[in-house]
Amino acid sequence: MKDNQTITMLKDLKAVVGREVSNNYSSTARARLISVRGNRASWVSVPSPYDPKCLLGGRSGEEFTTSISFAHSTFFC
After folding, report:
1. Is 31:46 a contact under the CB 8 Å cutoff?
2. Domain residue limits at 18
């Protein structure tokens, strides 16, 4: 059984699936949230608006996952 905080985070995140945000786990420092399941959020890296000299060879299209708490703080904190 999920607690109320987890249920709220899942509801909030499902409302922003498809949106892009700065994301430190992305190799381009930018990512789009593609799905939320259980306690994991799935992302795909997207082209960065930042100076390419500051990025370490990041490529768009790389998929990765994070916890829902990290994803929630990325959008809402």
Report:
1. yes
2. 4-76
Q: Are 26 and 43 in contact (CB under 8 A)?
A: yes
Count helices and strands in the chain by DSSP H and E runs: 2, 4
How many Å is the Cα radius of gyration of the chain? Answer: 13
Distance CA 39, CA 32 (A): 17
Task: List pLDDT tens digits, range 7-31.
Answer: 999 999 999 999 999 999 998 889 9
How many distinct structural domains can be found in the chain? 1
pTM for the model stands at: 0.87
Residue 13 tokens read as: 């995140």
**What is the spatial distance between Cα 58 and Cα 28, in angstroms, rounded to a whole number?**
5
Q: Output the CA–CA distances (angstroms, integers) from residue 32 to 5, 14, 37, in the order listed.
A: 23, 13, 15
Joined together, the tokens standing for residue 39 give 């306690």
